[in-house]
Design goal:
This protein has 413 residues and is α/β, with parallel strands linked by helices. The protein has one domain: Alpha-Beta Complex (Spore Coat Polysaccharide Biosynthesis Protein SpsA, Chain A). It has a 5-stranded mixed beta sheet with strand order 3-2-1-4-9. A hairpin with a 2-residue loop joins strand 11 and strand 12. Helix 3 packs parallel to helix 4 and helix 8 crosses helix 11. The longest helix has 26 residues.
Length: 413
């Protein structure tokens, strides 16, 4: 009896092995798939038999023609050609400009990467870096490797980054202490005040900047969220624009209590510099008596350097500089540039770049218009868009110019 049981087990085991060998042999005869769009060379050692059916993957006969495969839709269609490495057309006499220090290297590297990927890899514009100290070799090596155009590194003259002779430094120190107690942002910072004064009146006069007519200001740690497929500098020139912005908002009143008074003093003494069709309605609700505190956020600017070097702007800056507000208060370069542009440029010379998606802590400009965002591969959340927020001044800019707001802006309020 025991022998009979052993004999039966041997028979079952042998049958199992034969079945296993059969399946192994069968699997080796499955032909290689021919991928859509590629006509595979036929392996004559493999007979024309159907593909093995694998769960979840459709069965396709090997005998299908190339045309039949091509007629099937791709799972991820791409009907657009990739953009060229370098855009065609003439370049403007333009540069990016960044005020940075050596310790900002990785924050500015991030910004450069955004600008290059979204815009400059197609245009290869230069980049000027300015510092109140010497740039070290690491900063130069990293940034020059990232920029597609030429890089230039300049040191700011000491007289442009120091107290002018007419400033009472004891008074300035007391102001900083008072602002510190009131917890006003950058209220006790000396370097921030030098920076604001420099950006207001000197960066465009640096020897390296004298080679250019147009500039695009880039700060450390910014993001660009959408592809920019046209030359923004050429757009400015062709459309006779001289200043542009992507974000606008109200300034902290505590930092500029007498700035508008200084601006009115300028207009009184230099009426010839005031444009007839200016942007006073953006700056004031009462024909210039008081200031709305609206300004264009100057950490992003594309502008004309010849305008900043003009007699009108130099006279404006010189008048403000002697008023002392950069140190006795905390005047920022944003309201300074904005008031100057609002008074001395015609309103149609100022441009809002709705299509340049931008972030600088804590505000986001995400273009209003879903189709634009899809077409330009934007990765910003439209719910974060600041434009139609109550603290933004962009609606005022639209209303002043009689412009129709973008479709869908109501959803972002």
């Amino acid at each position: 009896m025991a022998g009979t049981q052993r004999y039966l087990r041997y028979i079952v085991f042998a049958a199992f092995c034969l079945v296993l060998l059969y399946f192994i042999g069968s699997s080796s005869s499955v032909p290689v798939a021919s991928w859509p769009g590629h006509e595979a060379e036929k392996d004559t050692s493999v007979p024309d038999t159907p593909h093995a059916v694998i769960p979840g993957i459709p069965s396709t006969p090997v005998s299908q023609s190339h045309d039949q495969l091509q007629s099937k839709p791709s799972t991820t269609p791409n009907d657009k050609e990739l953009p060229p490495a370098t855009a065609s057309g003439d370049r403007m006499n333009a540069t990016f400009v960044t005020l940075a220090r050596n310790q900002d290297i990785w924050e500015i590297a991030k910004s450069i990467r955004h600008v290059e990927d979204r815009f400059n890899r197609k245009f290869n514009y230069d980049w000027v870096f300015l510092n109140d100290d010497d740039f070290n070799d690491e900063f130069k090596k990293v940034t020059s490797a990232l920029v597609s155009g030429k890089t230039k590194y300049g040191k700011i003259p000491k007289e442009h980054w120091s107290y002018p002779e007419w400033i009472d430094q004891n008074k300035a120190a007391k102001v900083r202490e008072d602002m510190k107690q009131k917890k006003i942002i950058y209220g006790d910072s000396v370097s921030y005040r030098h920076m604001c004064r420099y950006e207001s009146g000197f960066f465009f006069r640096h020897p390296l900047m004298l080679d250019y007519e147009w500039y695009w200001r880039v700060e450390p740690s910014i993001d660009l969220y959408c592809d920019i497929n046209y030359d923004t500098f050429k757009f400015m020139a062709d459309n006779k624009k001289k200043y542009s912005f992507v974000l606008s908002l109200y300034e902290y009143v505590e930092t500029i209590p007498t700035l508008w008074d200084a601006a009115k003093n300028f207009t009184k003494h230099y009426p010839q510099h005031i444009a007839k069709d200016n942007s006073m309605k953006f700056l004031s609700d009462d024909n210039g008596e008081t200031y709305t505190n609206c300004h264009f956020w100057s950490n992003f600017e594309i502008g004309n350097l010849n305008w900043l070097r003009s007699d009108a702007y130099i006279d404006f800056f010189t008048s403000l500089d002697h008023a002392g507000g950069f140190f006795y208060e905390r005047w920022g370069d944003a309201p300074v540039h904005s008031i100057a542009a609002g008074l001395m440029l015609a309103k149609d010379e100022i441009h809002f770049f709705n299509d340049i998606a931008y972030y600088h802590v804590p505000f986001t400009h995400c273009p209003t218009g879903e189709q634009y965002r899809l077409d330009h591969k934007c990765h910003c959340n439209p719910k974060d868009n600041f434009d139609w927020n109550g603290y933004s001044c962009t609606s005022r800019f639209y209303e002043m110019n009689g412009m129709q707001k973008p479709v869908g802006f109501e959803k972002e309020q």
